[in-house]
Amino acid sequence: MYSFHYIEAKSLKEAGDLLAANPDAKLLAGGMTLIPTMKARLAQPSPLVDIAGLGELTGIELGDGKLVIGAATKHHDVATSGVVKKAIPALARLAGLIGDPQVRNLGTLGGSVANNDPAADYPAAVLALGATVITTRREIAAEDYFQGMFATALEPGEIVVRLSFPIPRRAAYAKFPHPASGYAMAGVFIAGTANGVRVAVTGAGPGVFRWPDAEAALAKNMNPAALDALVVAADDLNEDLHAPREYRAHLVKVMAQRAAAAL
Amino acid sequence: MDHHLLEVAGTHVSRLEDLRLVTGSGRYASDWNLPGQLHACFLRSDRAHARIVSINAGSARKHPGVMRIFTGADAVAAGHTRPMTILTFKGKDGMQARVPARPALAHERVRCVGEPVAMVVAETALIAQDAAGLIEVEYEELPVVIDPEEALAAGAPQLHDSVPGNLPFEFEAGDAAATAAAFARAAHVTRLKLAVTRVAPNPMEPRACLVAYDAREGSYTVHVHVQGVNMMRKQLAAYTGVAEEKIRVVARDVGGAFGQRSLAYPEYCAQMLAAKELGRPVKWVATRSEGFLTDSHGRANFVSGELALDRDGKFLGLRLDWIADMGAYLTPTGPVSHIRNPSTCLTGVYRIPALYGRWRTVLTNTNPVAAYRGAGRPDIAYVIERLVNQAAAEIGVDPAELRRRNFIPPEAFPYKTPTGSIYENADLPGLLEKALKLADWKGFAQRRRQSETAGRLRGIGISTVIENTGAGLFPKDEVAIEVAADGAVTVYSVSHSQGQGHETTFAMIVAEALGIPTERVRLRQGDEDRPLFGNHTGGSRSTVGAGSACHLAAKKLIEQGKTLAALDLGVEPSQVEYANGTFRARDSQRAITLGDLAGAKAFSATAEGSFSSTFPNGCHIAEVEIDPETGVTEIVSYVAVDDCGRVINHAIVEGQMHGGVVQGAGQVFGEHVVYDRNTGQLMTGSFADYTMPRAGLVREIRMEEHPTPSKVSPLGVKGMGESGCTASLAALTNAVIDALRPLGIHHLDMPLTPARVWGAIQAAKSRFVRK
What we know:
Helix content of chain B: 25-40%
Number of strands of chain A: 12
Oligomer: heterodimer
Low-confidence stretches of chain B: 1-6
Order of helices and strands of chain A: EHEHEEEHHHHHHEEHEEEEEHH
Mean pLDDT of chain B: 95
Shape of chain B: globular
Mean pLDDT of chain A: 96
Number of strands of chain B: 28
Strand content of chain A: 15-25%
Largest sheet of chain B: 7 strands, mixed
CATH class of the domain at 170-262 in chain A: Alpha Beta
Number of domains of chain B: 4
Largest sheet of chain A: 5 strands, antiparallel
Helix content of chain A: 25-40%
């Protein structure tokens, strides 16, 4: 780790000002990705602006057909929240599948979404549920927010404040964890919403993506068998020493069927 | 045999060391600090094979706080270049091992990624790390060879001029002609080519070392993790040319070792150089990344095996062609353990009249390989037990029945194998029957049908294994016992726990012999102020060796105490009796306690003993269920019936067995060190890519004991620290292959990851469709 300056921000405004004034500044929430990167000397941010404790970023609220969760809410809190479990049980289940207890008690929803790791779990839920990312500057539809591997619509200095999830009629998440890291090797979130069925896939490709064929098939018949005839193209999927892309493609379908079975 | 022993031994005593260890009060290698200490950081090669053209350390040297930068030239000038070898026996056709030099810092050439090229010593670790980043090394890349078979081929890149053909040692065991004759008359021959993959032992504690030099004495104090201080000192002395008596090794708690922590690594020898040159202590603490790159790896054996059978399924001969990947340099333990242990147990648990094995150790552009829990024993057991299961399938005989037909019968012990090993004792049929019953072998067909109905593939696998324990550089083990005036008993041993629980087991042995509560006995391991002769902890030898010496020392203490007590009690020593901590004159009421005796006179005893190999054995049966949609294997049952001789502490033995089984399961289902074939870069350099087993992998192990007491030790014990690992590789793999066999799959190399199993199922299905 290189030496760095650390500042605990007192407000979102202060955090934003610090980001604007320091091109090398980075936000620290749970630090589940940033700190290992710094320890490996692959990042040298300074100052590190800690926003994990900001009251403006906390809270889980249900109202008006939407579940709104503060960006600094920890995975464990989403997983165990009675409100989340009642409103979108699949989201609570997803949060409970992230990492391990240590990660779930430090890592945050906003951090995960801002980092947009292609194998993170949350992006699947955000995209499938058609959530809105509310930042310090604007509201961004999930559709527009995720822009491929570690890339988002966030502009320099823009901070994720909360996420607003429309309550689906039903939803389910099935995840096949990477055997070493525990990240999603294929994670599929299916949401039956007022606007139709949405299927989002994480872990398998260079970024979270929707699977239109599955959406169309499930719209006709919300049943795992509806996906039997579909084939996931492997060409654009990830490949590493743990899984060839053909295997990931196959897992996408299997996880989709398992999610569908759990709806 | 001392039957009195079982009053304490054989009970469940909670581990005496645990409170200290689980409350963070242990003292590990990085916990040592000395006034004025400096900090080292190693700049490591990012090439697998290259000539070092130049090292420009100019700006690093000027970096504030940097004391000095050392390179290979310094290591060579100081003569810190020759790792110890214990490969002293002759190989094939009288071959002497060719042990390449390994300067503590790479000199002129690097041969694997991670090799230390320069050492920065600075006022703080952070400064050293910053300065290391400023050093510029110019390399001229050389061709890389990762695969040991390719390294043996003509025209392969050569690693060392002194090792032609990358072949430092070739060895053979058994009778080639007799074995060829056995194969010639065989009714059936089973052949398998098997990879016992390269793994990273990954002890929880990262490596760390602190070296101080005393200029007046010309001596070094090395604070480092050990498996035994003597072995470490001997290796450091050999590596650096410093006399053994000028090196003091200090160690307390060790956070896991698995064979990996027995080595004197080049970094320690480089620190010795720096501590002497700079006149200040030099400390280094490795990162986990450095651990993956440079802590010795394990296994990496690639074996072609053939088993010859007659018409009745009796084994006629076994022939092995064994390639042991040693990495870029030979470690002291790597070649020996991957040759000697397998050749000692070459016949497994079977009567096989003709045996022949050929071993080739090979150098590749990878991190060196050393002993790792079992050290060749799991490897040979895996080879034999895979062959036996495959043979059973090929000739259509139940795998349990094929074992029964070929076991060394109980009455044949002590059994001399065709390669000259003498197995002490075992009841192999008894083990098997107990395990079959515990695993409900007969009910398997029914369970398999149930799994089929649920769309799952179920398999069952047996392995029945025997192994030799005992390894070490020293012919004897010595233990000292001291009694304090308050009656507290301190035991001193060289054998050093890395988690095995010596403090409890040895205390129980001494407490038992002295008839006092276990809590009054305290163990000090590797005490630098109380040097003793003896071996490290390794090769499952500690209870057999040092444990037995504890027993002998306690007995000696009583005898010596009688003489001393006689003076005090005014009687002849023959009139003194001892029981439960008190010496008593036979014909009077006069008595004196151990503590009072020690208060009056210095009271201690030292005993030594020489203990040969014991042969623990066991039968493990694993049952698995595979989800053919994902390739995920679930271990649904694991049964272990083991003969560890007499058990001192059941909880500790169970814990060792659990750890061994899970370590084997880790290798079977996930662990694998992978290098890029072309560049020699390590692909599995963190836990994000290296699959360590998790708690859910093995959920339950059902164990039973089936002891046949050993006469090697007065305690009747057999070593057992590695048994679980030795048996589990084959039991689990056999179970997976059994599940897949209906699809026409006869073998898959570990790791049996979901992707690999799924891929094999897909390939088998497409073969089926084409037919």
